[in-house]
TrEMBL record:
It comes from the Bacteria. This is DUF2642 domain-containing protein. The lineage of its organism: Bacteria, Bacillati, Bacillota, Bacilli, Bacillales.
Length: 64
């Protein structure tokens, strides 16, 4: 899961995160220096999500 987030951050890909409480967060992953949380830029602004709260990661890739 963390590796998928790192790949998405490298390629500036949009992701959909499913959290333990059932919420979905959609946004672009940004590199973070915090080893316990991921940084997502979404419509609501910058959101920090602890890795332990993430159940599933979906990467949205663009095919050219």
């Amino acid at each position: 899961m963390i590796e998928e987030l790192r790949i998405a951050a490298m390629y500036h890909q949009r992701v959909i995160l499913t959290l333990q409480d059932g919420d979905l967060i959609t946004g672009v992953v940004e590199m973070s220096t915090d080893p316990t949380r991921v940084k997502i830029r979404c419509i609501d602004g910058l959101v920090w999500v602890p890795y332990e709260d993430i159940v599933n990661v979906n990467r949205l890739i663009t095919l050219h």
